[in-house]
Amino acid sequence: AKSAGRRTYMRYDDAMDVSIRKRAILSGALRKALDHDEFRLVYQPRLALDSSAIVGVEALLRWNGAEHGAVPPDEFIPLAEESGQILEIGEWVLREACLALRRWQQHGLAGLSMAVNVSVLQLLRGNFPEVVRRILEDARLDPRSLELELTESVLMANAGQTAEKLLALRKLGVSLAIDDFGTGYSSLAYLKRLPITTLKIDKAFIRDVTTDPEDAAITSTIITMAHSLGLRVVAEGVETEAQMRFLVGQNCDEIQGFWLARPLEAHACLAFMRGRAPQ
Ligand code: C2E
Ligand code: CA
Ligand code: CA
Ligand code: CA
């Protein structure tokens, strides 16, 4: 199965004649990006609806290239996946995110979880659970404070091997979320078969949730189903108070989106979380 990222890229590719040339140029620049310190992470806070507490953040990768300026992740991550560079980049992301959480803990913020996006290649190549274990140990983090976000296509890619890796990660204590839930073609059977802890409802369903009865029905059904399977539900792309209220009414567990906060630089995220901490 192709990854969602790859599908995104192919659509982009079809739409633009220059894209093959642009892609080759970007690929070359991407190869130097790690060495040249061109990556950084931003962090988007997540809010628990029952307690109104900030319970964690999602780390999102940014590339500001010397030659190309800011390139959106939807453009460069598929390239990094095709070239295999995502392995090295993904490991950098994990380490950087864990160290940021560790620093925030040292600033007195407890009980936060860090969500990190993981590509299929990272999960399947090498000994990923061991890589994760070592990074957590180096950062002196409780594995329960790390959540890995995987897309549905990841779970379909290589069922047997995937299940084995996910089990090893769960044994470490790490949480496992399905990202962009509802957009894949896969059967729901994997929810029973795999040790998933969290579903993230794709922002495509949230956008019109207060005006489109079908999106409302899909969203409320996902939440009910997830809860009956013992899973936590995060809604992403929440941009308005009305969307937030709808999700409160449906007993959604957490929200993430511009209504609460945009992805923030580490220092701004720390300030935001401190400002919201119970006094
Ligand atoms: P995603 O994992 O689904 O991340 C959520 C995306 O939605 C982010 O886009 C975020 O900035 C954006 N977003 C957050 N709140 C809102 C909102 O209220 N409204 C709208 N319209 N958008 C919102 P971003 O940062 O451009 O990332 C795009 C995608 O790139 C991510 O989608 C993820 O699939 C991928 N990505 C980002 N960082 C990494 C990474 O470190 N590793 C991997 N493998 N993929 C990553
Ligand atoms: Ca994500
Ligand atoms: Ca998502
Ligand atoms: Ca996505």
TrEMBL record:
It comes from Luteimonas vadosa. This is EAL domain-containing protein. Residues 23-277 form the EAL domain.
